[in-house]
Amino acid sequence: MSDVFYKTAELQPHEGRYWRDANPEDVAASEQHVRDVCATCRAAPERLDNAGIHTVRVDEKTSTQALEPKAPTKPMRPGLIERREVEYQRHGTQVPIGNFAVATGEVIAPTVQQTRGEADFAAHIAQTIATAPEAGWVFVADNRTTRNSATLVLLIAGVCGIPADAPGTEGKSGVSKSVATRKAFLTDVGHRVRFVYVPEHPSWLNQIEIWFSVLSRRVIRRGVSRSTDDLRDRISTFIDYHNDTIAKPYKWTYAGRPLNV
What we know:
about 260 residues; alpha/beta; Nucleotidyltransferase, domain 5
């Protein structure tokens, strides 16, 4: 077919992008879940101002590589674009775990380290809560197993003053018995510290993903890291710069209506 036809029909056969079909079993329940997440986001400023409750979007950026090009980058000049060496040396990876404060746009109490297991995530949440130990916290997270682990249940039980024997044993008894019981405990609105989980596939509902894209463009994609320590320092420096100069809440207008894609 001719280019004229494609232009007339507004078709772009040379372009495409990946997408993930959520395909929920219960469409109505999934749409309500999305609306609940959006309502949590919209309520964040009022919760912080009136009740001192922090609403935080939390996630991790996996396998962030410390890369060093094998030749220096040639800077742009009049008439020439910047040219970067395509071959590079790998110096290991780091996993940034970030907290995007919905009401302020700041990235608070970040963790940058090599591992991202169950204990690592729980330690990150504990570190975050410690910045305001008496405050209320609402963490918006995805559905990875580390986000609803028995270790996390024990942490939240301790923070909320729930008796030590209440969580039970993973796979056997009590709150920790199954994913369903752990999620029910962690999302309990009666707890001073609780979680709100995004639906299974729409990860774009988590605002920290937007901030991670900024981190990738400004720090990781075009940066030079000669070691994991170097990478960690560059990420930490950018977070400080972000908080001091450009942090602001995202204008979240999506209210949960179905999207046509």
